[in-house]
What we know:
With 273 residues, the protein is of the alpha/beta class. Helix content is 34%, strand content 28%. The chain has 2 domains: 6-74, Winged helix-like DNA-binding domain superfamily/Winged helix DNA-binding domain (Arc Repressor Mutant, subunit A); 78-269, Rossmann fold (3-Layer(aba) Sandwich). It has helices spanning 6-18, 27-34, 38-54, 78-92, 107-110, 113-126, 143-153, 211-221; strands at residues 24-25, 58-63, 69-74, 98-99, 103-104, 134-138, 157-160, 171-177, 184-190, 199-207, 226-236, 250-259, 264-269. The chain is globular, with a radius of gyration of 21 Å. It starts with 5 loop residues before the first helix and ends with a strand.
Amino acid sequence: MKKLKRSARLVEMTQYLLARPHTLISLTAFAERYQSAKSSISEDLAIIKEVFEDEGIGELSTLAGAAGGVRFVPKVRKDLALEKMVSICRELEQPDRLLPGGYLYMTDLLGQPAMMQEVGRMFASAFADRNIDVIMTVETKGIPLANATAQYLNLPVVIVRRDHKVTEGSAVSINYVSGSTKRIQTMSLARRALKEESRVLIIDDFMKAGGTIQGMVDLLHEFRAVVAGVGVFVESGEVEHEERLLQDYVSLARLTEVELKTRHIAVQPGNFF
Length: 273
């Protein structure tokens, strides 16, 4: 790269860090990239660090020593996240989202990239310190959430299938009981999709009793994997705490009231806040 003026270098360096979250980058690599002294690079990083923290973009952590460098950890300030989540809750409360059976229509929101980016940042902030290897979700509505979270954690995504696909080779399949319908269902994961003993973050769009997520947890046992965390976009408040199959999770929104006759829906921020 050609030598840049300091103002241009700050812009390019910021973009370089934003595109490589949770990646350790040495001062030597920056010095060679911008043809600048390490002392100048350190000064630039100090400026970027201050802006990142002041604006709630994330943290720029420094690791000293010969093998050291800097690592950008995306995070979101709770006040900014809460403001955004309150807006999403108002969207979810629209009466026309109520479907027969009391289900909540969310597919349009899950298809909005800008909104998913915000939600992904929240999950990434919540699980930034969990030492995660891979993100898991079940097809299909959880995929946008998992991909958005993976972008900020810089991790691969593994998708659990409802039905095994022959194009994925041999797979591990299990039966599980849906917590809401009490029906026995099947999920499967290709053996090549996940290394044994991986630390896994589970992301899902909606949780009622937690049967689907518990199914994923049981599936991970077949791979001797560790559940490093569980993130849920919306949880149902209709299920009593002791009846929920899962107790340790982070939710961004909580569906607290559904009245079919009046089509009244109430949604509030989840336990992340």
